[in-house]
Specification:
121 residues; mainly alpha; 72% helix
C-alpha cells in the first residue's frame, strides 16, 4: 500500500513539473481592476510565471475548503468533547461506587475475587 502511495506521489510530482514547464510564461497579475486601482490609489501588480498563478489558486482553494470544513465540523467536535467528559465523569462515579462497595465490613472473600475478575488483591 505504501508503494502505491509513493508511486502516485511521484506521478503527481511529474505532472506538476510538466505543467509548470509548459506554463512558464510571465504574466502580470493586478490586485484590483485598473479603474478601481487608480480610484483608490492602490496600483499593485506583480509579474509572475503562469504556473504560480494556477498553483496559487489551487492552494488558496484548498485552504478555504479546509477552513470551511473545520468550521462545519465544529459542532461534531463539541458533541464528541461533551460525550468524552460525560464518559469520564461516569467512569469516576463507577470507580467511586466500586470502591465504596469494597469498603464493606465482613465482606466475603469469594465475592471480592469475583468482582476483581479472579485477581487477588
Amino acid at each position: 500500500m505504501r508503494a502505491i502511495r509513493y508511486l502516485l506521489l511521484v506521478l503527481l510530482a511529474i505532472v506538476l513539473v510538466v505543467v509548470a514547464m509548459a506554463n512558464g510564461q510571465v504574466v502580470t497579475v493586478h490586485l484590483l481592476p485598473q479603474e478601481l486601482a487608480t480610484f483608490t490609489g492602490l496600483v499593485q501588480s506583480a509579474e509572475v510565471p503562469l504556473y504560480v498563478v494556477g498553483f496559487g489558486g489551487i492552494l488558496v482553494g484548498l485552504l478555504i475548503g479546509f477552513f470551511w470544513e473545520w468550521l462545519r465540523e465544529s459542532k461534531h467536535r463539541a458533541t464528541a468533547n461533551q460525550k468524552r467528559r460525560e464518559a469520564a465523569k461516569l467512569k469516576r462515579e463507577l470507580d467511586r461506587v466500586k470502591a465504596d462497595k469494597h469498603k464493606g465490613e465482613g465482606r466475603d472473600e469469594i465475592l471480592a475475587l469475583l468482582d476483581n475478575g479472579g485477581k487477588a488483591g
